[in-house]
Specification:
The complex is a heterodimer of chains A (291) and B (177). Chain A is of the alpha+beta class and 291 residues long. Chain A is built from 4 helices and 12 strands, in the order αααββββββββββββα. The radius of gyration of chain A is 25 Å and the shape is globular. The longest helix of chain B is centred in the first third of the chain and has 29 residues. The chains are: A alpha+beta (291), B mainly alpha (177).
């Protein structure tokens, strides 16, 4: 029986456990499930220290893919005669490299053409890693505050909207994608010019809320950003309507959007930097100091 | 000289190694898994380390270690540290009651029980997610990938526990008070 009675150390442990548990519970009640965007020095240090490893692994994959492709090319070339073997392997290797370069050029060209549409500075960034927890949709980029990235900068590709910058360290930044439930985007149906709010569901298809029944949407309608909310500029392609579920009495409807961006195959993105945002932030900081 | 596992220095080294292992696990999950598997397949290996600490360690300051583990996890995720810490401490209490009943005599049994506990962990997470967002947790929307993830972690758990037992210099059945 005595075994079940806690000793002094056990009591202390239970008290400290309960203390931490209650503190976390209180914190949970106050905040969202998502961690804060203000990065402390320690957080910046950890991210800055370990993100290069994440980046190196991503690069390793690309190199590994090239190596594997080269190896396959060489194996197939061995089946041909000895004289042609070297030539074929070299040509195939070159072709593979050219294809890789061509694909990269095409992607960058699309991004370049796309970025001409927007005023302000644009920054090309690479995906370093993704969120550890698959309940949240975050991606980490290899550009940070030292490159001019500030929180809430919109992130796009040539295909369409990705999300906005949520956390920043000097050399890396985290993007809250439009697939995450935390992210809400004011959108516009291109055909009817009706407004709505795009909200992520954590899966590949976010939903559109608060659409007016006066302007019914149709499957395939083009969805763009409205420019309201002061985060995303107007006119960025978001996706098209994939599915509409109307309730039997017609009061509510569930609208599902299919984003133009394939989030599974993202490699490079553009961060749109608006100088006015920095000025605005400076003004807010000044106001905060005055208060 | 043999290093005593119960000395403060020994425990501190084990703790640092555990934190480094967690960081390695986070990097593997956030970087390697999305490269080679579908992007929705991201098993949180850190949960297994939390399970080990809850089950085998009985320190006074274990809640603070759990807090720091989940805090480090939040640097690689959008998940708030408070949520993970709450669930981890709940599991710590649960394991303290269950540790005299549960005896893992084989790898299969250990994996099976860890699978059940993982399902319980994700249930608590889904509950908190629903309360905050009024939406189903995304992993419930892709049940196949989710169960594959739990299966993977269950399979990995006996090996992870074995490795962590070595790090903490524990006997197979002992817990560190």
């Amino acid at each position: 029986m005595e075994d079940f009675l806690p000793n002094k150390q056990g009591k202390l442990k239970n008290i400290s456990s309960l203390g931490v548990f209650l503190f976390c519970l209180l914190k949970l009640a106050q905040v969202d499930l998502i961690s804060t965007k203000e990065q402390t020095f320690f957080e910046q240090l950890i991210v800055e220290f370990f993100a290069p490893t994440q980046m190196a692994l991503t690069t390793l994959k690309t190199k590994g893919k090239e190596f594997f492709a080269d190896y396959l090319a060489n194996v197939s070339a061995q089946q041909q005669n000895r004289t042609l073997q070297t030539e074929v392997a070299t040509l195939k290797n070159k072709l593979l490299s050219f294809r890789e370069i061509e694909e990269e050029n095409l992607r960058l060209k699309q991004l370049f053409n796309f970025q001409e549409k927007f005023s302000g500075k644009k920054l090309l960034a690479q995906i370093v890693s993704r969120d550890v927890n698959n309940a949240f949709q975050m991606i980490r980029l290899n550009k940070g505050s030292s490159d001019g990235v500030i929180p809430q900068s919109p992130v796009v590709t040539a295909d369409g909207l990705i999300g906005h910058i949520y956390r920043v360290t000097p050399h890396y930044s985290d993007v809250l994608t439009i697939l995450d439930p935390k992210n809400k985007v004011d959108i516009l149906i291109s055909r009817t010019r009706a407004h709505g709010i795009l909200e992520g569901k954590g899966d590949s298809y976010p939903r559109i809320l608060y659409m007016s029944s006066k302007d019914p949407v149709e499957i395939g309608d083009l969805v763009i950003t409205s420019g309201l909310g002061a985060i995303y500029p107007k006119g960025i392609f978001v996706g098209h309507i994939k599915r509409i579920q109307r309730s039997s009495i017609g009061l509510t409807e569930r609208i599902q959007l299919s984003p133009f961006v394939n989030f599974d195959k993202l490699e490079e993105v553009l961060v749109l930097l608006f100088p006015e945002k920095t000025e605005l932030k400076a003004q807010w900081n000044l106001l905060d100091k005055e208060q | 000289m043999i290093k005593s596992p119960y000395s403060l220095k020994g425990q501190l080294i084990s703790l640092i190694l555990t934190f480094l292992l967690l960081l390695l696990a986070e990097i593997i999950t956030s970087t390697l898994f999305p490269l080679f598997f579908p992007s929705s397949f991201r098993p949180d290996i850190g949960i297994l380390i939390v399970f080990f600490l809850c089950f085998r360690l009985n320190f006074t300051f274990i809640p603070f270690i759990l807090f720091f583990m989940r805090y480090l996890h939040s640097l690689f995720s959008l998940e708030h540290w408070a949520l993970g810490t709450c669930i981890a401490i709940f599991f710590h209490f649960l394991f303290q009651y269950l540790k005299d009943i549960l005896h893992f005599s084989s790898f299969v049994l250990e994996g099976l029980f860890n699978g059940i506990f993982l399902l319980f962990w994700y249930t608590l997470f889904a509950l908190a997610y629903y309360i905050k967002y009024e939406a189903l947790a995304p992993f419930l929307q892709t049940p196949f990938v989710f169960f594959l993830q739990v299966l993977f972690l269950s399979f990995l758990s006996p090996y992870a526990f074995q490795y962590l037992t070595k790090i903490w210099n524990l006997n197979e059945k002992d817990s560190l008070d």
